[in-house]
Amino acid sequence: MSTGGRGHLRIYLGAAPGVGKTYKMLGEGQRRLARGTDVVVGFVETHGREHTAEMLAGLETIPRRILDYRGASFTEMDIDAVLARRPEVALVDELAHTNVPGSRNEKRWQDIEELLAAGIDVISAVNIQHLESINDVVEKITGVPQQEKVPDRVVRAADQIELVDMTPEALRRRMAHGNIYAADKVDAALGNYFRVGNLSALRELALLWLADRVDAGLQQYRAEHDIDSTWEARERVVVALTGGPEGETLIRRAARIAARSSGGDLLAVHVARSDGLTGANPTKLAEQRNLVEKLGGTYHQVVGDDIPAALLTFARAENATQLVLGGSRRSRLSTLVTGPGIGSTTIRDSGDIDVHLVTHSLMGRGRLPRLRGSLSRKRKIQGFVLAVALPPLLALLLGLGGDTLNLTSNVLAFLFAVVVVALVGGMWPAMVTAIAGSLVLNWFFTPPKRTFTIAELNNALALLIFILVAAMVSTVVDRAARRTRQAARAAAESETLATLAGSVLRGETALPALLERVREAFGMTGACLMERVDDDELTEVWRPLASAGTLTCTRPEEADAEIPARDDLVLVLQGHQLEADERRLVGAFAAHAAALVDRGRLSEAAAEAKPLAEADKLRTALLRAVGHDLRSPLASAKASVTSLRSDDVEWSDAERKELLETADESLDRLSRLVDNLLDLSRLQAGVLPVFTRPMAMDEIVPGVLSELGDDADRVTVDIPHTLPLVEADPALLERVVANLLANAIRYSPPERPPLITGSALGDIVEIRVIDRGPGIPRADRDRVFAPFQRLGDTDNTVGVGLGLALARGLAEAMHGTLQPEDTPGGGLTMVVAIPTAQASEAPVPGARERSGDTE
Fold first, then answer.
1. Which of the 8 DSSP states describes residue 778?
2. pTM for this predicted structure
3. What topology does the record note for this protein and the membrane (predicted)?
4. Residues 22 and 78 in one domain
């Protein structure tokens, strides 16, 4: 028992039933018992496995609690008895088990939580398919929905998780030897759930899930112990992307590095500036993200103004072992002007992370950064005009004051002029003003006047400081103006993107909505997404996929702007030329448009393939199921007729009669099968004739009992004569009830015969066919109405599974319904609901009313 107040949980995790989880759990219990630990068995299910049952020897077992539910008895773990016994360790199998209604907790993992809270250590077991997060993935792989589920947090919170592993081949051998399931279930299991592909996929899921859990534990340990250094437990390769053309080369190189190490991870990261002002090409980034994901990696985006620091922080947080960077595109002259680049700084500060500097074709081909502001040309012209006009005007005004102002006041006045010019025209007009102002101050206001000679060092220092301050102020003002304009631009772009995303999500025709939003956002007269068609070997042929507004061009080069979305898709705009920043934003829209085209085509392909797949599935099931049912009656009838025609054997009258009866029964079975198939096909085609009329429910009873033959004696009939008339086709309703009763007879115990009864509820009359058989799980109730489905059957000796599918179809053809319910005390109740004659006003489409018909 744990000394810390709360017990410890140890879980054995398996990929599939039969890998040995319970065996390992009991083995651990035996080991601890031999060590002197107080161990009890709270609940263990051996499933009839001999070797597992042997492991219970010597272990104290807490008696189970018996619960009655719907007339049947079930056993569950007696949690109160375990708590009263207070062992040090409790062995509790099947962590994901759902308790029988009436238990204190709904799930067994909740029982285990109580034991842990009481300070009792628990050892349990669970299969990977029961974890909530991957339950849907398992269903896609195996085709079997899992009803028993346990939250991942319960398993992740375990103090110890041990994987019980076994290769698919070894597990199938165990199955074939009868060590997992009973002999009569082995073939079905090997051919369905226990296929090699299923087991391999489940095994991989278990290994990956446990590896992620181990990795999370490692990260937690490193965080708790303030370990910043990289632990090379697994190769993690981080590739830095800028959205440049060299990105694809870097990604493929990083993927090859990761592939050299088994289990290596590939992570791509793009560092965006904190102010959102980035020169990255969004189209390129989207393409590179797709490439990363295709190569099995993950894409991340972090924010940081110091790119080397942001890269290394991300790499260390992910416990990366290697970092891949592209060689700088800047020229040597640019490096000399602006200092060391990102690669050099990253290598210097990388510590124990290996940095790969990958060369590419664009290295060193950059130019010096362009020194330009971000103000409009009109404002720059206004600034230069002020730069030329303000110094002489200010000199004239200051000269009118005579000697009342000293040099300091004059310098401050010209500094004010520099700031005004900087606010209007930016840095370069302000620099012109500063230079002109210094010359004017030197000529007019600095002794000796009317000369550029400065007599006093103090005046020379004042002019020098004026020039430096003017340059600094003008630079700051210009940079602030640039940032303000860029921020406003970024805000406008963000708003446009947000509006675009909202309109696309709300609209039913996403691509036209996207093009219309682009056209409106950029003030264009027309927008169109064109696709290249390779119909002509000499010239490119383009066809429009969607358009908005008015567009007169038929080829991309005829438009005012063409933005490639990918090799064969171009977004063309007509109205005016785009600026460079606008082209970058439209590039993101073009990438989105290409994704929408791909998504639409995939949806269309899926929609076209679905009917074919359903038809193929139905045809395959038909051939598989009907094969036996056609051969069996034909073979029986043929054998009987051949025997009768044989001259080698003298048959007695009794034997001849028996052979004729066998042939007659076989042909009747064949006739019913063909009738069901034809009726089902007519139902699916919507051409089954339905002749409804007002009728009493007890009219169908004689026909139903007659069709059941000798089995009719096993049916209890309790249909009140006071039921209102229903609007139905007597022949079809008779077939519905006969099919349901035939199923009920097949599954009902001999001592508990099926019951047919009826009741009225408003404008509906319900016929209930009640049996006391095993029932149908809720998850399978829709499947039993699909053609060629027989739950629990492993052969075709009882029919091809058309009965319930045909019964529901016939009921719905008469505006009725057929639904299953649980029988109180155990079993299944099929409820046929038919509208009364007064409630039925509109005839069934395609039906012909027959008045005056009698049966």
1. G
2. 0.37
3. Multi-pass membrane protein
4. yes
